[in-house]
Design brief:
Layout lengths: L20 H6 L5 E6 L6 E9 L3 H8 L5 H4 L3 E9 L5 E8 L7 E10 L3 E9 L3 E11 L4 E11 L6 H28 L3
Antiparallel strand pairs: 1-2, 2-8, 3-4, 4-5, 5-6, 6-7, 7-8
């Protein structure tokens, strides 16, 4: 089975997964991450949630910052904007990923923005066979905090044992969620 060995993947709106009450109750202890095989067997599904004590606008600014992305994801070596909508509704990004000891690969992703609520993305080129997903941001505590929900479906360009891929993805997504939280809190705390 081929699964993604990638870190900042993002999800399909068709799934519309929302964390359950039990998951939400546990977010005070840290991010929730679930990685499992896609029912069709061609890809993997990643679902994650986190609550961040920063306004959605601050979390959004961190999320869409291509220059910051390599510092937030260990396997992401570069992020470059290839094309951008002048009105700010979408961009096309090239990302170079080097997951652990695996060879590097390239992905070209179109991200569609509904700021500061939703970022949808999908593969338009590169080495990945499947890559689609979504980040959703919901205000909490009167807009002083944000619930982040992430979903993605991806397939690796390499054959990777499913159990190893799921472990690596879980670790990478936890790391990315922690980095998103850390950077968002730092920006929220800095004077403007």
């Amino acid at each position: 089975m081929r699964l993604a060995f990638l870190l900042l993947l993002i999800a399909s709106p068709a799934w519309a997964w929302e964390p359950t009450g039990q998951i939400l109750a546990g977010l005070s202890r840290g991010a929730y991450v679930e990685v499992r095989p896609d029912p069709d067997g061609a890809s993997g599904l990643i679902r994650a949630a986190e609550e961040i004590a920063a306004p959605p606008e601050v979390v959004w600014a961190v999320l869409v910052d291509c220059d910051l992305a390599p510092r937030m994801a260990a396997s992401l070596k570069s992020c470059r904007i290839l094309e951008r909508d002048p009105a700010g509704r979408w961009d096309l990004r090239e990302q170079i990923v080097r997951p652990g000891l695996m060879p590097r690969f390239r992905s070209v992703v179109r991200s569609d923005f509904d700021a500061p609520r939703r970022l949808r993305f999908r593969r338009t080129g590169g080495d990945l066979k499947i890559l689609e997903g979504e980040w959703r941001l919901a205000p909490l505590d009167g807009g002083r905090a944000t619930r982040v929900v992430y979903e993605s479906r991806a397939a690796s360009p390499y054959a990777v044992p499913a159990s190893l891929a799921r472990l690596a993805l879980r670790r990478d997504v936890l790391t990315a969620m922690a980095a998103l939280k850390r950077e968002s809190l730092a920006r929220a705390a800095s004077p403007r």
